[in-house]
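W.,

You were right to be curious about this one. When I first looked at the sequence I had no strong expectations either way, so I just let the prediction run and decided to look at it fresh. Below is the sequence, 1010 residues in total, followed by the output.
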Amino acid sequence: MRRGQLRFGLLGPPVLYDVHGEAGDFGDGTDASGDADVKAIGSPKVRTLLAALLLEAGRVVSVESLKDALWGGAPPASAQASLHNHVARLRRLLDDPERLRAVPPGYLLRVEQGELDVHVFERHLATARGAYAARNWERVVRECTSALALWRGTPLNGLPAELGGYAFVQRLKEARLLLLEWRYDAELAVDGARLDGLVPELSALAAEYPLREAYHRQLMLALHRTGRQAEALAVHRDLRARLVEELGVEPGPAMQEAHVEVLATTGGPGAPREDDTASGGTDDSAPALPQPPRPAQLPPPPAHFTGRTPALDDLRSVLEPGRTPAIAVISGMAGVGKSALALQVAHSLRERFPDGQLYINLHGATPGMTPLTSAQALIALLRDLGTEPRRIPEHPDAAAALLRSLLAPTRTLLLLDDAAHAAQVRPLLPAGAGCAVIVTSRSPLTALDGARRFPLTPLSGEESAELLRAVSGRDALDAAHPLVELTGRLPLALRIVAARLAARRALTPEVLAGQLAATEGRLHHLEYDDLSVRRSLAVAHDALAASEREADRDAARVLRGIGALDLPAYGAPLLAHLVGTDERRTEAALDRLVDVALLEETAYGRYAPHDLVRDFARELAAGASDVDAALPWYAAVAERALTAIVEPGLDQDDRRRPTAAQPPDHAAHVAALPTFESAGQAFAWGDTELVNIVTLVERYAEDAGADADVQALRAARISTLIRLVFPYVLRSGRVAEMEVLGGAALRVARRLGDESAEAYALGDLAALHFLTGRQSEALALNDRALTIWRRLDRVSWMRRCLNNRGLLLEGLGRYEESGRALRQSLEYSRQLNDPHGEAVTHSHLGNLYEHTDPRAAIEQHRLSLAIGDEIGAVIVQHSAHCNIGYAHLTLGEPAAAVPHFEESLRILGGHGDWHGESQTRLGLVRALRLLGRTERAGAECAELLRRADARADRYTGGLARHQHGLLLRECGSTEQAYEQWRAALDALDGTDEKAVVTELRELLAEAGTR
């Protein structure tokens, strides 16, 4: 099948073309369809189905959208089956049944370039526009004739009015009238053989459009140049009378210019032409052209404008005439209200700009429109300022200079709406100090020098509710209503929802909210008449996908990749892996998506889409999922992070050792990735990606929707990922995330029947319970893990569990049992030649001895410190100093404790160990308070509380608030102290921190507040 053969028609009733010959080249004025026969479509439903698919050519149209098109929003119970039947009938009519495919969540009709008459029509229109601007009259005639040959009548004739929208049909009808106007201008300019034939055609058009000046002007000139001067003057007289009587305005400059040409010549066929009058052929008695009115072109201000008060105030301040022209760029995503804000502020500033207000829509992101070139915009602006068309320079630089000259002495406001890029805007800018320019664009146009930028975000909840109430008339809607968030607080979406509510009083906000809550259909419900969130977003994506620039095409692929893996945020490394490009290209693609407002850079190198852009990206992905590519990548990077965070030795080796269920390709994924240069880099990666990891685990750990093999592989990848990432989560103290990941790991391991993975999960959950002060529960989990490791005869893990058992028993006051477990652990460490494990056990023995002999405890900690120094184990070194500090506190020596706590924090630096850090900071606060250094103690306590609250660590927060209350009491702030103690007791209730809980109850009881 050749590209370029016309197959589908919407310029009239929907039709199919049966092509027998070669297609035309779309540039020679011939019918683009070659020898095309129209294939009849007898069924109205099939015609409607074809039109609905063609209106979204090349994109998936959801089943729900097709049902709405076929049955007007009230589909029968049999709609699903009927739709299948209509699809089958349409397939039989197509030249290739494979053109129409079922692609979740609907159907996709493949339409190649040049196969749809609307696309061909618009291509001719764009080419004709360029040729008209360049005064290439022969090309104008050819392109206009080719486009008009495709017109069979009103587009979508015979179909429901709501299909395609009023704006779609009106745009095409207006384009046809414009093509006719351009063609007649071109034919008059070349004075061809068709002059006599133009008169009847133009007479019919002038009668059909009695207020359209262009056709009357062309009719005047055609009559005049064929020797019918009196009739030409009568056309002018009749039009002027009609305009004055009906509208109260005079004919425009172009009509007046044609009038002068008729008056200035004798009226014969050989009379001097417009070009002759410039060299002295003008009758001195001819009236002078009146000065054109001052431009006042601003569209009406937006109805129900809501919010944006700070932006309005700032814009009014910036757009004050000064020494240089003021330029303001209002940017933001599709539908965020850029044009509304621009018009609101422009109307409020009219008095500042008495010489006029110019408005031009540059169509940078208008659905179905090709962006204007700067040359086309210059011609339009110069004509609006009264410049005769023949005096407009052909070269864009000269035209830009003329525009600057005309505006230089004036105080004029320009509103350049919907700019595509800075290069489109730059030639249109005035140089006069009295002028100001407002530009709206999805891009911030950072290449535009000297501009102040006003990036817009969605409205606030209250502003959104106010807009909904104003447009819909539903006064009960408030900021808490689900519609506010379901529209993403985007003004376009809010207006669509409000318009639907206003149009259908029986439709309740609750029902509409329920429809929007179905994520797969949200964009479908955000369409009304010519308003469509989907089409507004599609403009940017489609332009990227069709671009010749590599970065643009990559950007379109990246957006589809985002739709295939729905995560809270994205970075270049993950997306590069998913779409198969390198990080440099992916970063460039992400920059382009930010530039066209399809993504927001929430932090350096982190990107997130608006909720409605997420829905659009899901539609682009058409049901595809990249989770099976993401999970192995995350597991591999987690192992690289593990090797950077955990010191080399048995702890690292054991954690990396594969379990029975670990996928065999994991090692290859790891080998393909670079290593982290430092622990700090690994922690930074974890800090940014943990939210995504938790999202994937929550979504797919219980993935009942997948088939058995896929489900088993995903479970194995999740098990591997959690095992490898947990040391980072533990060291970081991310309590809430530990609970989610630990619970999921245990369930997945048991489902897989992987005993090692189950033991890992039990041990990790024990660590979580220990960090949150629930030592009894931690002991039970640890002992269950120990049982499994003994059954598997894994001595290193038995040593680790015994060490943890000793620590937990000591915290519960079971000192004799603690000593036995620790001594057995120490024996295993020596048997394994594991100095790191030996050092940790000495540290725990020191904690045990502190209850009976703090001096002996210090010796144990010094043994641990010596081993740590010898093997370079940072965590061991910092823990030893922390524990020595606590031993000195037990001895009543806070002055001796402070240097050890400070040294512990210095050693830890950025290595990350939240438990060790929090205990060290808590000990330092206690020591400083006992020394009477309350100011520094208060500062350290505030920092500890800030870090604990950031991690949702209520246990550490409770211990810190206990100390904070003591500090407040010592400073005389008794009531505030009680508040802190009540909060501390609330946080510590249910933990095994019995001594502190008892003290808190006593402190509160003394005040009579419990």
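Here's what jumped out at me. DSSP finds 45 helices and 15 strands in the chain. And, maybe more interesting for your project: Residues 166-190 form the longest helix (25 residues).

Coffee later to discuss?

I.
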